[in-house]
Amino acid sequence: MTGFEHIRFKLDDGARESLYNAVAAARRACTSTQESDGLWDAWKALEVAEADGSFVLTVRELYWVGKASRVQFWRDEPTMTRVMGLVQQQFNEWSKGPSK
């Protein structure tokens, strides 16, 4: 797996918006340029969704999305748990796919 492989995710609009907002909050709170740049890339990737609500992240962007999985960046813990669980589930399905 390279940092440039593309993974398609599909979250309902509310879940994608929550994730988008959490990544934005994490970016505002970061203290290093590397972290800021990585979170910016992930945030911009989440901004672009297809008509069906799906979006694509690189493995690198997914890494930075994971950095936003702290309760302080989310509206509440149940939302974070649900959305990050969906992301984890879809990543697991992708990693077991036919190309692996």
Word description of this protein:
The chain has a domain at 38-99. The protein is 60% helix and 10% strand. The chain has helices at 13-29, 33-47, 59-67, 77-95; strands at residues 6-10, 54-58. The chain has a two-stranded antiparallel ribbon. Helix 1 crosses helix 4 and helix 2 (33-47) crosses helix 3. 27% of the residues are buried. The mean pLDDT is 90.
Which features does this protein show?
100 residues; mainly alpha; two-stranded antiparallel ribbon; 4 helices
- Distance between the terminal alpha carbons, to the nearest Å? 9 Å
Q: Radius of gyration in whole Å, from Cα?
A: 13 Å
Helical percent range? Answer: 55-70%
Strand ordering within the main sheet: 1-2
User: What's the overall average pLDDT, rounded?
Assistant: 90
SS strand fraction? 5-15%
Structural category is mainly alpha
In terms of per-residue confidence, which ranges show pLDDT below 50 for 5 or more consecutive residues? none
Q: Write the H/E string, N to C.
A: EHHEHH
Shape: globular
Tally of contiguous helical segments: 4
* Strand elements, count: 2
The largest sheet is:
2 strands, antiparallel
List the helices and strands and how they pair.
Blueprint lengths: L5 E5 L2 H17 L3 H15 L6 E5 H9 L9 H19 L5
Antiparallel strand pairs: 1-2
Helix pairs in contact: 1-2, 1-4, 2-3
